[in-house]
Write a structure and sequence with these properties.
It is a single chain. By secondary structure, the protein is an alpha/beta fold. Among the domains are: 213-290, no CATH class; 295-318 and 457-587, no CATH class; 324-360, no CATH class; 361-455; 664-692; 694-731, no CATH class. 64% of the residues lie in helices and 6% in strands. The chain contains 35 helices and nine strands. The strands form three sheets. A five-stranded mixed β-sheet has the order 5-2-1-6-7, with helices on both faces. Strands 3-4 form a two-stranded antiparallel ribbon. β1 (83-92) and β2 form a beta hairpin. α4 (55-78) packs across α31 and α6 (143-162) packs across α9. The longest helix is centred in the C-terminal third of the chain and has 39 residues, at 654-692. It is globular and about 90 Å long. The mean pLDDT is 87. Residues 678-719 are annotated as: Disordered. Residues 678-692, 699-716 have a biased composition (Basic and acidic residues).
Length: 731
């Protein structure tokens, strides 16, 4: 046991098993400071005296796992028939962070180890698995910045993998071209910059494919053919620079650049000719690159589209809209207007502005409920008071209110279901328990707004419509897309079914409002039958319930059409074969990126001194099953290599360099904008001086005849639009 934890005698390095234990302990949440102490306690449990690891050693051991994860990722990309990528970004403390994932086809490494021992690797099955690549602090949020990040990621993977003993032992080499040739698509949210990134990466893939074909063609040619080609291109090179004398005048560096450029053009021309000669199926195989959007974002946007249509339906019906929910400042201005018994005349200018700035409706009410009952700032709101109150009255543990002010997927619909199920209890909690539990019974503007919304039939009508949509369309859809190992490219029929189901409801609304039927998208039971039962009980006293619900569903349909366009009949996904869809496999949601971004923010709250590369090292090792990879394929020389590289990284000052790059970029940005601002001011000063020099018309009668010479800047001899514009500018 002792030898497994320490080796090389007195004061020797920790063994691979001890390092593995340290990484597993940090992955389980143990701080680096306490790992050494815990290892000592574990040793004493078994009667072994072990010298504990220092915090510095633990940090370096974590980096060793990071190095192993990068070797693993390059190996998996190199040996995968097809990979896809995904990314997303968020901000944290005014810094933009971008998460990257790659989805290669990989084996189960525990199974691989067993099959290696038995000598039967033919039974090994390769499955698509999401691999965390990195979370980077980007200099900007542009599409070009994202593309540069992918280039840097793959260049670093290439440099590390190609000098590893693992690569030498397997006789493998990894390049960014290997990545691009294996790349079959990209997924993410529906932001324009994400689509632009995918388009540019697709272009890079095409260029890499052409170069690959060109190099293969050169290798297939005989020496005589190669000499012929080089002679022809050499003549073209000399012609472009102006002849042999001009060529000799160039420096050796300039000549080398020209030679490199002409060689690249030769390869590209041969590759393009080879590509053009291929059949349609062969070109399709080379070009295969499919983009798809996150299904959770599709559902989120469909909900937003439904809400917009629902809010507009009140005016079309010509009835009173939901009650106004004004903020504290506007509420004071609108106090007389909001009082139902008030008799007021024409609105003042301030009241008109307050009306325009204030919002209303079910979604706004759920925003306010989330702020009161589950505020993202845990020092605000009712929090545990709400949970305890409902536990007492319902006789069971009650979950927290859905986090509507964190903009979580489906949170507003879930909040509506929660309120509709326990409407009378929420009214009592808001109107009685909260104000009368205070020393001086009062209600804040937030509490007043919520109480007003919960007693307003129009607002309740919107909440009921939200509940119906969630149970009929949204939640059945999410049950499918969040299933295990779902390929987003196989979901074309699902999206067609969503639109067909909505059209069926709009054509025969009575089906939806018939209490005897369950009209779920997937034909199963309601996700929340208690909420649907509460809607059935409330609907008779809500005269506009059916119209408002149908408006919500109608609005969602237009959004589904727009956000599922990649699945359109005749499109790339629709016409892809099952084999192509497997090559371009990707998850149906962007949860992997959303998850790691949220995990980073939560981690940094508890460990504010954690560096970004230490976070990446722990997350990559833990999430990519690197331990199983190392146990199955690593040998002693690989462990020595990752220790050596970890020492290099640890002494390189990665975090200091990253922060310095951020400061330099920000300084450059400030200087560029300062120059632009100065140029704008200078232009304004010049324009002002010019306007001062223009003589003004003093009498309207001057327009009857031709302009005076000093007023006719272009010498046209008549009043033109240009001359009149100058007069207006000068005035």
């Amino acid at each position: 046991m002792t030898q497994q934890l320490r080796r090389r005698g007195r004061g020797g390095a920790y063994s691979n098993k001890a390092r593995e234990l340290a990484r597993e302990m940090t992955a389980a949440g143990c701080s680096r400071e306490k790992v050494g102490r815990l290892i000592q306690l574990i040793g004493r449990t078994f009667g072994i005296d072990i010298k504990g690891m220092s915090r510095r050693t633990v940090s370096r051991v974590i980096i060793e796992g990071w190095v192993a994860s990068k070797v693993q990722l390059a190996h998996e990309i190199k040996n995968s028939e097809g990979v896809t990528i995904s990314q997303d970004s968020t901000s944290h403390r005014k810094q933009n962070y971008e998460a990257h994932h790659i989805i290669p086809k990989v084996p189960d490494y525990d199974e691989l180890k067993q099959l290696q021992d038995s000598g039967d690797k033919a039974k090994l099955i390769y499955k698509p698995r999401a691999r965390f690549v990195s979370l980077d602090a980007t200099l900007d949020h542009s599409s070009q910045g994202s593309i540069d990040s992918w280039k840097v990621i793959n260049n670093k993977l290439s440099e590390l993998f190609n000098r590893s003993p693992f690569a030498r032992r397997l006789n493998q080499k990894f390049t960014i071209r290997d990545f691009l040739l294996a790349l079959k698509g990209m997924c993410g949210d529906h932001a324009n910059n994400e689509k632009a990134t995918a388009h540019e990466i697709q272009n890079l893939k095409k260029e890499a494919s052409i170069e690959h074909l060109g190099e293969k063609k050169i290798n297939e040619k005989s020496p005589a053919e190669i000499v012929f080609y080089l002679a022809a291109w050499n003549a073209k090179k000399l012609e472009e620079v102006g002849g042999i004398d001009a060529w000799n005048c160039l420096s050796p560096r300039e000549q080398a650049v020209k030679d490199s450029s002409i060689a690249q053009r030769l390869i590209t021309e041969l590759g393009q000719a080879e590509y053009d000669s291929l059949g349609v199926d062969e070109r399709r195989e080379i070009d295969l690159f499919i983009w798809s959007g996150c299904c959770m974002h599709k559902d989120l946007n469909s909900f937003k589209g439904g809400n917009s249509e629902m809010m507009g339906e009140w005016e079309r019906l010509g009835v009173d809209r939901p009650v106004l929910l004004a903020n504290k400042g506007n509420a004071a201005i609108l106090q007389r207007v909001l009082d139902p018994g008030a008799n007021f005349g024409k609105l003042t200018e301030d009241q008109q502005r307050a009306f325009l700035e204030s919002t209303r409706g079910g979604v706004k009410a759920m925003d306010l409920m989330g702020a009161l009952l589950n505020n993202k700032d845990d020092k605000k709101g009712q929090g545990d008071i709400h949970v305890n109150y409902f536990k007492k009255h319902l006789g069971k543990d009650h979950p927290r209110f859905p986090p509507t002010n964190n903009t979580r997927f489906s949170s507003h619909g879930l909040a509506a279901a929660e309120v509709i199920k326990y409407l009378s209890l929420y009214r009592k909690f808001i109107n009685e328990d909260i104000p009368y539990s205070k020393t001086h019974p009062t209600r804040t503007n937030l509490e007043v707004n919520i109480a007003r919304a919960l007693s307003d039939d129009a607002t309740i009508t919107e909440l009921c419509a939200m509940v119906v949509y969630m149970n009929t369309i949204s939640q059945p859809y999410l049950r499918v897309v969040r299933g295990e190992d779902v390929n987003a490219l196989d979901l074309g029929p699902l999206h067609a079914e969503v639109k067909s189901h909505i059209n069926k409801i709009l054509d025969e609304p009575s089906m939806l409002f018939d209490a005897s039927e369950t009209l779920c998208l997937d034909g199963k039971d309601w996700e929340d039958p208690d909420a649907m039962k509460a809607v059935r009980e409330l609907s008779p006293r809500l005269p506009h319930f059916q119209n408002i619900t149908l408006a919500f569903i109608r609005g969602s349909l237009a959004t589904w059409e727009r956000f599922s366009s990649e699945f359109a009949p005749g499109g790339l996904i629709d016409e892809a074969t099952p084999a192509e869809k497997l090559l371009a496999w990707r998850p149906a949601t962007n949860d992997i990126n959303e998850g790691i971004l949220g995990y980073y923010r939560v981690t940094m709250r508890g460990k504010p001194s954690l560096t970004l590369h230490q976070f990446n090292a722990m997350a990559m090792y833990e999430r990519n099953d690197t331990l199983s990879f190392m146990n199955a394929l690593f040998e002693e020389e690989d462990y020595q290599f990752i220790r050596k590289v970890a020492r290099e990284i640890d002494s390189s000052g990665l975090e200091a360099k990253r922060r310095e790059a951020q400061v330099q970029f920000r300084r450059q940005l400030v200087e560029i904008n300062l120059k632009k601002e100065e140029a704008r001011k200078q232009k304004a000063r010049e324009q002002q001086e010019r306007m001062k020099s223009i003589p003004l018309i003093r009498d309207i009668s001057e327009l009857d005849g031709p302009p005076r010479r000093e007023l006719d800047e272009k010498g046209s001899g008549k009043w033109t639009g240009y001359n009149l514009d100058l007069q207006l500018d000068a005035l």
